[in-house]
Amino acid sequence: MLGSLNIKSSAHILVREVEKLVSLPEVCFLINDLVNDPCCNVDEIGHVISQDPDLTVRLLKLVNSSIYGFPTKIDTVSRAILVVGLKELQHVVWASSAVETFSKLPPAQVNMAGFWRHSIFSAVVARILAKERNVLHPERLFVAGLLHDIGRLLIYTEKPDEAKRILDFEEQNPGVDIVGLECEILGFDHAELAAALMLKWDLPPGLCESVRYHHEPARAENHLLDASIVHVANIIAHALESGEEENVLKQRISPAAWELLEIPEDKIKRILHDAVMQFLETLELLLPGASQKM
Q: What pTM, to 2 d.p., does this model score?
């Protein structure tokens, strides 16, 4: 597992140094244990989640949103688990908790509104693409899309001088190979760092590998489709941000990844439309008030 991710020791060392700073709340690890326990039941998991009032509120807001579109209101966590599904709700817990954790780390030199806008848009697109491909538990691709750039936040926070060099060079040289630049300056790149942190959190191999190789999906030995979905979602989000969808998509998406997704070009406009419609609501649900700052 670790070998297939090819993460340099320097990335693992940095993650160990910031482990307490960016640790998921204990409830996430408890839920992971319970989900993997065949003797556990829905009420027990619902009880554990309900002990965290903030998390409970966020989860119920999410499952009652138009993103899921359930006809009746869901007012308990146990009911949410039954309707949404245990694995899907576990993924929503990860997503909500990760945003809560990293929203407390505002690096001075980065536009955090822009960071979350891109991350959440990538997550929304990844979930839509996963559903188009009938991927099991598409919510996990939402998590992967959401977390694909968290390594950059760690770099900004823990390596500010190096981060400034990277940002300055990136600004002066649009389209630069950011992965190569990070490796040259830091010895590792943000995708490695994100995957190393996710491994520390004990997240599933598929999530870790899809984030690790979202710039080079062909290198994902065991989860090629997941990595391809995150790769395409990331580029679509960048394209929408730049206002050059057609050119950017054709130039930057891996042809092999696009072919693997098997999504006809005539569906792209609908996917983009659905993503835009879901984006602002998802942003407001995960980061209340953030949409007003954009």
A: 0.90
